[in-house]
Design brief:
Elements lengths: L4 H30 L8 H4 L59 H11 L2 H4 L3 H10 L4 H12 L19 H6 L10 H23 L11 H13 L11 H15 L29
Length: 288
């Protein structure tokens, strides 16, 4: 006997439920392994401790105090993923760039020249960047770009809101992921905290956008920009299609550093290949 339309639809749902449930379970375990914040920490609860990109960078020397980037006549730019990636098939997903095609102003070019004239300063943390990028499976260049944008490689940097160190980590954020706030001026602890939080943001995005089979370090540009926006303005920025002008300026700054030679990793990565990976735990109260 032929099934009615309603029964046919129900049968289709039942046929799909098993594989989808199993896939989501596996994906959930993978995300849990990558999310290194101790159990019980809710990303949404971290939003209120961010300084929301309002005054963090204003105290730092550099082009961050310029006006926001604007490109007349262009309101949206999209990233075209390869057909093999699952996020390209997700209904309703409109991957937008926070800042389409940022171009460096003369002030940025001067900053880049100044920093490149002192590679001893810009490259002094490359070893730590490579170690923690490897440990958390992140893009080392993006990690270095955030450090450049946040502090210009000055480990003693502090914002008016109290964000500290190379990656301008808020004390409450650090405590929430197992890093003592009084250690945030130490490059080891600061990069560790910043990398762990970036990994948590990536894990949240992977779950939302179902980026099955795509490594963190291979994330598309539109997602990297959202991660950068969320690092600055709080996790809710991951899933917005509109951003404050200050957040756009911050993303522009990070992306310009990301594209510049300042963030080249000039240390030999093979010299750190024996560095131990961080072993993720579902129950551990620390990042290791």
């Amino acid at each position: 006997m032929a099934l009615g339309k309603g029964n046919a639809f129900l049968a289709l749902l039942l046929a799909l439920a098993g594989p989808v449930w199993a896939e989501n379970r596996v994906e959930g375990v993978q995300l849990a392994l990558a999310a290194t914040i101790p159990g019980g920490v809710d990303l949404a609860r971290l939003n209120h401790i961010f300084d929301a990109a309002k005054v963090r960078l204003n105290s730092l020397v550099g082009p961050s105090s310029q006006g926001g980037y604007r490109k007349p006549g262009r309101t949206q730019d999209t990233y075209n993923p390869s057909p093999g990636n699952s996020y390209s098939r997700r209904p309703g997903l409109s991957p937008r760039l926070v800042v389409p095609s940022p171009k460096p102003s003369p002030a940025y070019r001067r900053t880049f020249r100044s920093l490149l004239a002192n590679t001893r300063k810009t490259d002094q943390f490359d070893e730590l960047i490579l170690i923690y990028a490897r440990a958390y499976r992140l893009d080392a260049r993006l990690l270095k770009a955030i450090i450049a944008a946040e502090s210009e490689f000055f480990s003693g940097a502090v914002s008016p809101k109290g964000a500290r160190g190379l990656m301008q980590v808020m004390p409450a954020t650090a405590e929430g992921i197992g890093v003592p706030a009084d250690k945030l001026y130490d490059p080891v602890f600061n990069i560790r905290a910043g990398a762990a939080f970036l990994a948590r943001l990536f894990a949240s995005a992977w779950k939302r956008y179902r980026l099955k089979g795509v490594r963190f370090q291979d994330a598309p540009l539109w997602l990297k920009q959202r991660i950068v926006a969320a690092y600055n303005a709080g996790p809710r920025a991951l899933f917005h299609d509109r951003w404050f002008s200050e957040t756009r300026r911050y993303v522009k700054k990070v992306m310009l550093f990301y594209q510049s030679r300042v963030t080249d990793i000039r240390r030999d990565p093979t010299s750190f290949s024996s560095a131990p990976q961080i072993h993720f735990s579902l129950t551990a109260g620390t990042l290791y």
